[in-house]
Amino acid sequence: MKKCIVANDAPKPVGPYSHAILINNTLFVSGQLAINPQTGKIEGDDIKSQTELVFKNIGAILKEAGFCFDDVVKVTVYLANLSDFAKFNEVYATIFTQNYPARTTVEAKLLPGALVEVDVIAAK
């Protein structure tokens, strides 16, 4: 059974998609940007502040679906500039401290002002 997840504490989707889809015991979270849920605007001028907000938004979606960061099994990271890789990892290491999920990191053209986008898959 497929269930659409919408979290009130995460920014509203900016297009025709759900925050996440829950199928059986697996949650597929859409890519999240550093968007402030209250303003709907991208915030943060540096990779660290944007990464923190991205993971705050992902955390809200995970929580809404009954999951947590310990349940994350796969992370895909899109960086506007791969030179931000080390600084991104500094924040990432505070989110995932053990049993690291599988991860892919690529450089990508993102929305104006966005330095990072992250999507995750979580499983129970």
TrEMBL record:
Keywords: Hydrolase. It holds the Pfam family Ribonuc_L-PSP. GO terms for molecular function: hydrolase activity. It comes from the Bacteria. The keyword Hydrolase applies. Belongs to the RutC family. This is Rid family detoxifying hydrolase. It comes from Caldicellulosiruptor naganoensis.
